[in-house]
Amino acid sequence: MPKTITEQNLRLLIDSLIKEGTRVIGPRRTGTITLYEPLARGEELDLNELPRRSAKEVFFPVCENILSFQRGEEGVKVTDIDPCAFPETVLIGARPCDAAAAPVLDSVFSWDYKDEFFLQRRRKTTVIGLACTTADDACFCSAVGLSPADSKGADLFLTPVREGGYLCEALTDKGKTLITSHARLFAETSAAAPLSLNEPAGVKLDLHKIKGWLDENFESPIWKEIADRCAGCGSCAFLCPACHCFDIVDEGTEAEGHRRKFWDACGFGKFTDHASGHNPRDAQPKRYRNRIMHKFKYYDDKFGQTLCTGCGRCIRWCPVGIDIKAVLEEIQKG
Amino acid sequence: MSPNRKFALSYSYYPGCSLHASAKEYDVSTKGVFNALRIGLKEVPDWFCCGATPAHNVDELLSLALCAKNLSLAGKVEGDLAVACAACFSRLKTTQHRLKENDIKRKQVETAIDGPVPLGKKVKHLLEILAKDFGLDKLEGAVQKPLTGLKIACYYGCLLTRPPEVPELDDCEAPTIMENVIKAVGGEPVAWSHRLECCGANFTLSRPGVILKLSNEILASAKDAGADCIMVACPLCHGNLDIRQEEIEQATGRRYGMPVFYITQLVGLACGVSPLRLGLESMIVSPAALLREKNLL
Amino acid sequence: MKHDFEPKIVAFVCTWCTYAGADLAGTSRMQYPANVRVLKFPCTGRIDPVFILKAFQKGADGVLVSGCHPGDCHYMAGNFHARRRFAAFRKLLEFVGVDLARLEFSWVSAAEGGKWVEVVTDLTERIRTMGPLAEFKELETEEHWSGRLETAELKEAYNNI
Amino acid sequence: MNNTAQKHDATPLVAESYYAAVTDALRTEAARLLSEGVVTAVIGYKEGRRHGTAGPAIVVDPARANELIFSAACVNNLALYLTKAKKGVAGTGKIAIVAKGCDLRALAGLMAESQIRREDLHIIGVACAGVFGSGADRREPLSAGNLAGKCRECSVGAPEGADIVIGTLPPLPELSPVEAEELARLEAMTPAERWAFWKENFARCIRCFACRQVCPFCYCEQCLCDRNRPQAVETTPRPAGNMAWHIVRAMHLAGRCAGCAECERACPMDIPLNLLNRKMARELKELYGHEAGLTPVEKGPLVIYREDDDQSFIK
Amino acid sequence: MSRIGVFICHCGENISRTVDVERVAQVTARLPGVAIALDYKYMCSDPGQNLLKKAVAEHKLDGVVVAACSPRMHEKTFRNAARAAGLNPFLCEMANIREHCSWVHEDREEATAKAIDIVKFTVSRVKKDRALAPITVPITKRALVIGGGIAGIQAALDIADAGHQVVLVEREPSIGGHMAQLSETFPTLDCSQCIMTPKMVDVANHPNIKLYTWSEIEEVSGYIGNFQVTVRRKARSVDEDKCTGCGVCMAKCPQKKIDNAFDRNLGTRPAIYVPFPQAVPNTPVIDRDNCTRFKTGKCGVCEKVCGPGAIDYGQQDQLIVEPVGAIVVASGFDLYNIGPKPADSPYEGYGEFGYGAIPDVIDGLTFERLASASGPTGGKILRPSDGKEPKQVVFIQCVGSRAREKGISYCSKICCMYTAKHTMLYKHKIHDGQAYVFFMDARTPGKNYDEFWRRAVEEEEAVYIRGMVSRLYQKGDKVVVMGSDVLVGVQVEIEADLVVLATAVQARTGADLLAQKLGISYDRYNFYSEAHAKLKPVECATAGIYLAGACQGPKDIPDTVSQASAAAAKVMTLFAKDQLEREPIVARVNERNCAGCLACKKVCPYGAVEEKEIRDRNGNLIKTVAYVNPGVCGGCGTCQATCPSKSVELDGYTDEQIMAMIEAL
Hints:
C: 4-stranded parallel beta sheet, globular, D: alpha/beta, 2 domains
């Protein structure tokens, strides 16, 4: 029998999770935008719009300490961060395009080096996904093989229903446990009518064909055509649920400091700047090419997956109006 | 007088004590000239003495407060403040100057007069109004009976231009504003040496001997330079040169017979103001013969 | 006399005037609070606003910038440029919410040992009463959880984590 | 009251035919310039895939001049493509650039800073009634309701100093200055409140550097914040480094920023960056009577001095 | 890892009395990168310095911190010690724990903590220090002297006599300056021309002096040791090489009624002229503004009568570039204008003295011409209005000087003396005449000056009236002087035949423009500023430029000549070396990062920043960047604070060094 949860109980769920010592992260309105943020109370949950940043930061924060050091009279003392100490977390309200990105990222973070910072967070996090009832002209999840109802990456999936509240589908043990341990907040129903979901409009992409073209066209005038105007900022990569490049830096003074891992972006001119002064990607089109190649070819070559979930954030927020969907459509044309 | 707003130019007006007493003709002729030139003039209600030359020698705060209060009264009447008497002009300007640069004094004065001092109110001498605000060109245009052939010694006295930072009227040691006005109305200013010398001022009361010497030099210098008459802008100068002229003649044995006009009397004559409204009859040294000779009466 | 709070004051001074003025205070055996740490520059013209920011970030409770009186600059115009730069910078700091009472500028000549003492003493005493500059220190240690600052509310919700 | 305000808000500022006419003239001019060899490239705007969007376009072929458009979606300050860091895009030779009045001010500033030379440019000015605000509803024609904040106070709608100006604007309504009001609101706060305001805003910053990358004046070949010996500004997107970064950037732009507000528009985190720039511009105007970028002036307010500059803040 | 040595000085007890130096040594010894920390009684003593030297060798130190007194006291000492030990001197820094610590704090604990901090951040700084090599700049051993008055002549002769080439530029047709106009000179009353003209001839004949008269400075670029000076040689219309100086042209010139400025317009001269008979060079110049040929094209007498054919009406101004290593500015002074206020003058004239409209009111220099044997009256003192001998002459001192209300508050320094001289000259020539002098003070400091003044008063019977004059006016053929005698307390009135005003010495009109070309500073009166009022009285703040004479401030002849010789000595000192060595605290540009906005150039007080084009191998311009000329850079660092990308860095004060200190606080 499918379960449902009312709007109000969803918030009570958050409150009781927090009370139990679980960290709850969900969309929260902050100023003019919505972000996936730690919630202090269930009321803070705001599911009205797609958060500006993706949910990847739940597993892969903007910036995190990976060790710290102090120089004392006896020499340098290094303190490691213990990833096992990360708190139990529930990510609530993750949209399909955000939830689906997490399993894609598992591949790269557990490939040869196991990034425990990422993986521990993944292990300790239960993802409650949420189906989309609206889409705008930047959304293109269905063009890359997902859909507004796709529950990939979610442990528990919510679909809004006409009567208010949500239909809950437990997809993993984590999801089931969450329901059973808060059973009083869920109801059993047979007659809930899901709201109609909004499939993004536009051309379906043939990812295979696109990859085929990319395999052949490392050198192509199209890159200059598309990306000459690229300003070289990192907003596309930083808003993207799947981009996962990071840099590591030591910050502090001679006496004490931290080693920190933080987001990096292949659009930055300094991204491939060598100490010698040589930069193999010396112009913006080469950097943009890498972005496309990485998402639709290299990742596929290596892991058989596409590094794009069609959330459309990079389209919406590119300051110079570069539209990855349009680029892919162009490539698909050949 | 007609309401101020009828005129393009209009002023508040501080006549000062002399102009209501010994220098009535200066007041009368000022009003006559302004009326003829269609310049509005509204007397400041309840004005009182500026303190003149004595006050600041005795008590600076008092002298400043007197002018400050007058300025404050003037502040209630629209238009820049027109002043005829050189001493009043000097005192009012000095007060503004002093209080602008000295906050402590300003606060003392404000306490004394129980209100703010309108330091921004512009105080203007008639000369400035005629030569600058009204304009020499327009003045020339308003002339009906040019003072052709009348050789005039323009006498500034001490106060009108000095100290330079206070009146800001003209070059303090070599002014030309009076000459310019006279040229505009057709008169002939003479070049002479004693334009800015002191006439003796209020020693006229305490040590008349000083006047006999100083004013004599002025009269002699004007006469030597070929002047027919002297033109002044100060009641006290006028008194010393006109009223005491006979006494000076007796003392020195030199006869001058030199009429001493106020600037407004001469400008008024030229601009067609009736001689009856210029107070010419109050002059001790009668100008009648001279004016008739020059066909100005 | 001991105080509850001893602020850390950083002074950026030019070598020709203020540093020499502070030397004079020394040779004259004048006394002033020991809170100030003096960093020497050739000229106030060399002092970058970033240094002031850095000093605050690294724990200064107050910053003093001092150089030659206008017209006395050893390099003719360095202090004139500095004057404009700091006039602008303090407006910026004020706008982001830094209390300008913590940032002092002065002209202290090589002959003004007394003025140096006065400036340093006044600033030290003022900052003593103001207490530590918490804002920058908080920032330095603050980690944000996914963009959300660790507010009291959040702390309370998760005090057991 | 409320109703009329709303009604007023949605009234189109200019007719759609205005943009069509400007677009036509723009294409003709661009085609002429390219085919006659006056310029080697035209930097302008072309339509985006999505409705109501447009983006920068670099046209070198006269046959493609008809891709150029002008509309209320032409938000970008194209001066960006002329500065050193990005100037490879336009190649060499004389270049034509489409510039709104606000963009022209940046061009003037860049000339003063020896980054571009007037003789290398052919400036196609476009009279602009304003552009869409970021996040505004672009389905409706441009109106007070969806106009960018900076455009509400625009005084340079008709550009001056261009080689050619396309379009004549109808009279535009006077709009309430929302940015100025916001600035006043902040100024009225206590320092602690302002600190809290900025701290919260800067905490969101992810250091994507969109603000820096779209700024025509951020043409440094090595940004101070990319330097690590010494590390003047922390690289990591943490509250400390973010605060330092935005303060340093505002300081570096003080007296230079021409007010195009691209930084604020480009910011994906909605940080009101232009408030900082506006504040500095106003302070410098008050202190030294300087206004950036109206005409190329050799020396900006922070590289010049007067012996009698204000020093009331110095003991 | 660095190997820093820290040496803590007790300074007898000066430091150790309040600072626990042993503790400072203990704590700092444990700082990262510190190899050794010691304390010692007197670090600056020989044993102390040896301690340092030994430690450098023994511990292979790569940096040294001496915690002692102010670096202003002993930085040189310890850097030299470090150098002697084989360490680059710029890797040695001082931590000031005396003037800035032990002497100003009483509490031992606080002072010790502060001393530790000071040492700590200095150690951090030293770690970021870089070895610096002194900068050498080659020197062009030629000097430029601007101005051919007595100051310029003296400086030029001194430098030339020392064997260096000198370029002397004079804007008038002849050298000589004001001194050539004087009759006799105080305090010896020797004839000015008699002592002046031999020097002028020496200049003309000196093999090391290149003389450009009727020439002006057009442009100056470069820096100490390496200036490029562009001189504009104004068209003389007479070929100097051909002209023999016979003077026929002047005699035959039909236009002879031009006011002779050299004679203060008392006499006249022809349109082709030399300013005075002893002119050097003795080559005439055509005054094109007044020459009939140039005005109407209808003359040409001079060309016809000139035997050697030296007249050249078509001559053009010529620009000549002269490379020089040092510049002496001796551009002289002007006198306060007693006429109406000229448009370009900041100073009010004297309305009460008639604004120059009374013919028998003249200035002191005019009186010099009247008294000069070669003057327009042949040395007879005759008044300008009617040529009569004046029997009563009133001299008024401080006209324009010490007159704040007229815009000048300084003392012109020479007027007391020359007025005294004038009264004597007058008395010597007109025995029955009477001189009166109105004065504020008689300022006579100088060798034999007061004696000279007393002679004027006591022997030559000049009547000195202490007080000022309120008004002068013409009365008949007399000038009435109205003044006050403040000693007696009476008004004074004198009917004078001639009035002589001792007008203020002021900077040359246009002195500011020349200063801007030279890049030197000037005061509010446009007098040039010396680098230090007491200790560098002839140097400008701009290296390689020196001052001589009244362009720096009012001066009499002895002072002017002294300063000129001093300036010459400074030039010779500079020229005594082949290369100039400078402390290497200069800015350097990182050309890779420089974006060429040139903000550094805009703020540089020294004009040390130039533009430099970076080209690829094919000569294509890649970019234009800033370049700091190390010879010119003064080392203030304003450029670095201004540069947004910090692409220009001041050696010795790099961001890295400063940040290291801030972080160590």
